[in-house]
Every structure is written in structure tokens, then in C-alpha cells.
């Protein structure tokens, strides 16, 4: 008895449908789909931004680590030789490849830094095959860190590069428009 009454109620509801729900769905579903696509593409852009910053941090970490315990401070850093610069570029490239990014798309921006009092400022770009084109500056006076125990400014390494990203939002001005994401990392040199 209950099932028969429930069946009658469902038939009445189905017969009373005038098509307004279909028209509403036709208006709302494309909008909901565009919002979901936007969430995906902006989330992907944030992921790429986080990845290139992680890669720059890995390169900076590699650049500031001591490679020789008995060397003088000027000769112990990987930034003191072209092979070391290429190794830093390779570290950045490996971190980018681990997340599925193409390191060859990275470009080096124009940068300007203040040199530390301890020596000249040097900015170089790796020239190894397959290395990303990044700017590696050593003996940089770090602006966001407190002075060292000796009272002078902190010195370190700065790594900068840009990476292109294209959104895929159809029916918007962002569809295929290139967006340049920048990575800028400074790290204090280990003593």
C-alpha cells in the first residue's frame, strides 16, 4: 500500500515537471564548469610557482654549502668556479624536472644587488647543456636579514629566474595568455 502511494507521488511529480529545471541546469552548469576550470588552472599556477621557488631554494642551498672544510671562504663556495655554477644550475633543473617542469623554459631576468664589503659582486648564468637559464649572484648583501655577530651586513647568494605559464580558461582573456612567474631566493652563506 505504501509503495503504491509512493509510486503515485513520484508519477505526479514527474508529470508536473514543466522543463524549468532543465532550463536552469542549462544556465547553471556551464557557469559551474567554468568555476571548476578556474579553480584547477589557478591551483596549477600556484603549484608551478611553489615548484620554481622550491627549485631556487635547492639551488641556493647548494650554492651556500661549504665544499671544502680547509679552504678559505672565497674558495669553498660552488659559486667560485664555472663548474660550480653549472652544478647549481643542474640542482635547480633537477628540482624542476622532479615536479614535471621543463627547465629549459626558465629565463634569467635583469637583476641588481648591493655587493658585500668583503668582495666583489658576481652574477653568472650556468652554461651547461640542459641547465636552466637562471641568474646566480654571489657576495650579495642580504636586505632581509639582521647583521652578523661582527656587526656587518649578512652576505650570501641570490638566485633569480622566471618561468612562463599559460592558463587554459576557454571564453576568457586568460585562455592561452602567458603569465610569467618569478622565483627570487636569497640565502646567507655558511661560514
Describe the structure.
The chain has 191 residues and is α+β, with helices and mostly antiparallel strands. It has 4 helices and 4 strands; from the N terminus they run ααααββββ. The chain has helices at 2-16, 20-64, 73-76, 82-98; strands at residues 122-124, 135-141, 155-166, 178-188.
Helix amount: 40-55%
Give the strand line-up of the largest sheet.
Answer: 1-2-3-4
Distance between the termini: 87 Å
Residue share in β-strands: 15-25%
Biggest sheet layout:
4 strands, antiparallel
Order of helices and strands: HHHHEEEE
Number of helices: 4
State the main characteristics.
alpha+beta, 191 residues, 42% helix, single chain
Which SSEs are present, and which pair or pack?
Blueprint lengths: L1 H15 L3 H45 L8 H4 L5 H17 L23 E3 L10 E7 L13 E12 L11 E11 L3
Antiparallel strand pairs: 1-2, 2-3, 3-4
Quick summary of this structure?
By secondary structure, the protein is of the alpha+beta class. It contains four helices and four strands, in the order H-H-H-H-E-E-E-E.
Amino acid at each position: 500500500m505504501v509503495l503504491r502511494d509512493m509510486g503515485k507521488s513520484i508519477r505526479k511529480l514527474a508529470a508536473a515537471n514543466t522543463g524549468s529545471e532543465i532550463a536552469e541546469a542549462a544556465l547553471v552548469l556551464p557557469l559551474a564548469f567554468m568555476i571548476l576550470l578556474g579553480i584547477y588552472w589557478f591551483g596549477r599556477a600556484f603549484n608551478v610557482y611553489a615548484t620554481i621557488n622550491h627549485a631556487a631554494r635547492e639551488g641556493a642551498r647548494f650554492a651556500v654549502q661549504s665544499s671544502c672544510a680547509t679552504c678559505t671562504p672565497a674558495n669553498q663556495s660552488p659559486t667560485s668556479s664555472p663548474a660550480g655554477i653549472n652544478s647549481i644550475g643542474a640542482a635547480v633543473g633537477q628540482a624542476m624536472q622532479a615536479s614535471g617542469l621543463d627547465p629549459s623554459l626558465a629565463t634569467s631576468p635583469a637583476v641588481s644587488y648591493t655587493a658585500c664589503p668583503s668582495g666583489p659582486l658576481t652574477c653568472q648564468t650556468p652554461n651547461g647543456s640542459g641547465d636552466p637559464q637562471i641568474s646566480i649572484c654571489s657576495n650579495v648583501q642580504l636586505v632581509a636579514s639582521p647583521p652578523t655577530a661582527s656587526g656587518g651586513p649578512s652576505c650570501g647568494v641570490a638566485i633569480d629566474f622566471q618561468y612562463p605559464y599559460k592558463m587554459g580558461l576557454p571564453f576568457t582573456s586568460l585562455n592561452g595568455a602567458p603569465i610569467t612567474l618569478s622565483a627570487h631566493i636569497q640565502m646567507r652563506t655558511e661560514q
